[in-house]
What we know:
Elements: E1 2-8, E2 17-22, E3 26-30, H1 35-45, E4 48-49, H2 53-62, H3 68-80, E5 98-105, E6 112-116, H4 123-140, H5 151-166, E7 174-178, E8 182-183, E9 186-189, E10 192-194, H6 196-210, E11 214-216, H7 224-234, E12 239-242, H8 250-254, E13 260-262, H9 268-280, E14 284-288, H10 293-299, E15 303-306, H11 310-327
Parallel strand pairs: 5-15, 7-11, 11-12, 12-13, 13-14, 14-15
Antiparallel strand pairs: 1-2, 1-4, 2-3, 5-6, 6-7, 8-9, 9-10
Helix pairs in contact: 4-5, 6-7
Amino acid sequence: MIIKNFKKNLLYFWKNSFKIESDENTTILDLNINDEDYNKIKNELNNKKIDNSQVLNSLKEKLNFLNDKDYALLEEKIFECMKKPWKLFIEKPTQIPRPMNILFSKDDGIKEFLIFSTTSQHFDAALNANNHVIAEVNKRLVNEDRKKISDEKLFIIIKEGIDEVFKDLNFDLRLGVRFDNHSNGKYLYNGKELTGNEQLEYVKTLIETYGLIYIENPFYENEIELYKKLSEEVRHKCLVCINSKINEYSRQLTEKVFNTALLKFHSISQFENDTKIFKENNINILSDTNTNADVLAGLGIPLVKIYNNPEGNKFTERIKKIERELTEI
């Protein structure tokens, strides 16, 4: 793609609105910048050929006067000027992210129950299966008090829902959970508290009893020894995931206390660099629908957590379109 012109959008002269025209598409960018910065961006973008991710990484360095939020917006709009942005990373992706959906969420105990496939070859098929399981679970919860239902009963109901849907599939459906249920050094469950070691034993029991293959944030981020003990015992059969609130994994990587990370997206260069580091350390990677769909497809991220909101819906539609684009190659 070649950006032909970056110019002021005269249709909206009363605000900082700009038009980006490429040889593939045109988009509108609203950005609060002064004339000096406008001219700098114009000089960089006009007649700019963007055919790989390194060009964008270099552009970020040259436009370092923009804050992270403004540059991320500019980057997003440049993507909109491309028909197939995933081609910046690879000529043809070998893997489309499989969807991980939230079956049930609550405020106490296990925060999220998650459903996903590890063997489905198509995003849409896996998404439909996940949604069918959600529908089956919701039917079985009609007469239940969702605020008071125990985690153990939820697992039984979810297992019934999975079994009902799985009989018509030719790929697997697997179960995972997100904890994040710690407070004041304890782990909270519907009126009871567990110590760190008790939480460790409980998590191991859940993995064995219900065949969980994904565990997210079972401990405080700084509970290195607990993560290490859990990973040593279950990493061969379960994804032990840290979803860092501060997006910092250095110590955990050094001490090899997890085998999976949920990476957050701030910019293409940051996400691509983080992906490279984790792959070099043999860490499984997933992300969520706050990440650009083309970036995930281009970098071969295998799993994406789908949120039921406008961003999640937009992401889902884009991934489906990418899947169709790949069949045309």
